[in-house]
Amino acid sequence: MTESLEDEIRENAKGPAKASGDAGSVEQHKLTDQIAADKHLAGKNAVAKPNRGLRFNKIVPPSAG
């Protein structure tokens, strides 16, 4: 899903912001809004992972015995 969103952002950046013709006009979302949406979706995917990048370990020193 992320790769397709990155591809969509690239395609939208290459195209015009507004286009009008006989049938009507079309306007794309702003690039800043697309980047914000990408960051939001990446954050949702990161939170969905079970370990969330945080791991707790108990350190036990070797015994003197």
Number of domains: 1
The proportion of strand residues reads 5-15%
Annotation, overall tally of beta strands: 2
Strand order of the largest sheet: 1-2
Distance between the termini: 55 Å
Region (Disordered): 1-31
Provide a brief overview of the structure.
By secondary structure, the protein is mainly alpha-helical. It has helices at residues 2-14, 31-48, and strands spanning 18-20, 25-27. Helices cover 48% and strands 9% of the residues.
Main traits of this protein?
about 60 residues; 2 strands; mainly alpha; about 10% strand; two-stranded antiparallel sheet; single chain
What does this structure look like?
There is one protein chain. With 65 residues, the protein is mainly alpha-helical. It has 2 helices and 2 strands, in the order H-E-E-H. The chain has one domain. Helices cover 48% and strands 9% of the residues. It has a two-stranded antiparallel sheet. Strand 1 and strand 2 form a beta hairpin. Helix 1 packs antiparallel against helix 2.
